[in-house]
Design goal:
This protein is an alpha+beta fold and 82 residues long. Helices cover 24% and strands 16% of the residues. The protein has one domain. Strand 2 and strand 3 form a beta hairpin. It is globular and about 35 Å long.
């Protein structure tokens, strides 16, 4: 997910994004990977390189920041009118 009004200030790190996509494809328990450090507060290291766990119930866990979401998880979280 990425809103269209963001400004890219540097080149996109395609290798990093591809790594995260492949990580999600091979580990079905990963529901979301935030691509910025502005959305959620880390809650400790995860078992995956360069990723942190986040608290399930925290403000802005679902936000408009750039992220890779498992579609089924995101659909469970949005309200019917959204």
């Amino acid at each position: 997910y990425l809103q269209e009004d963001y400004f890219l200030k540097d080149t996109v790190k395609n290798e990093e994004v591809e790594y995260y996509v492949s990580l999600m494809e091979s580990h079905k328990n990963i529901q979301c990977i935030q691509l910025t450090d502005q959305a959620v507060v880390a809650d400790g290291d995860s078992e995956y390189k360069d990723l942190n766990k986040v608290k399930f119930k925290q403000r802005y866990r679902v936000s408009c920041q750039a992220a890779l979401w498992r579609k089924s998880e995101l659909l469970k979280l949005i309200r019917e009118y959204e």
